[in-house]
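Input (HTH cro/C1-type domain-containing protein):
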Amino acid sequence: MEKEKVPQDKSNLTKNNVKELLYATDADGNYTTTLSTGWEPKTIALSNSIDEINERIAEAKMQVEIGEVSPICYYMEVNKMDLTILSSYVGMWKWRVKRHFKPTVFAKLSDSILKKYADAFEISIAELKNIKTE
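Output:
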């Protein structure tokens, strides 16, 4: 793409006065870098992704409130993690982390295990045990 044709559409980046670095060709056909405030298709895709993440967070929160899953599921979604990433952060096998998703198992976890989760989510153990139900 030619440097002069790099999109400058309004996007989520413009809210924070952030620009994205892109490669484009200059007048001589050489590659160079340029800044872009956004590109409409990318903005739409990003917005859809954020909406989906927010839906998953709301679903996880509801499941915690009705006692289907432990707060670990909620905080995993809030922190945009999946089972593989979370198990890596806490240093446990995936099957073990998945087991901790059960409220009955979660209630029996030791403070040392809860501390691993709290550290991964950058919250306190108290916050991990008692999510806000606003």
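Strands lie at 20-25, 31-36.
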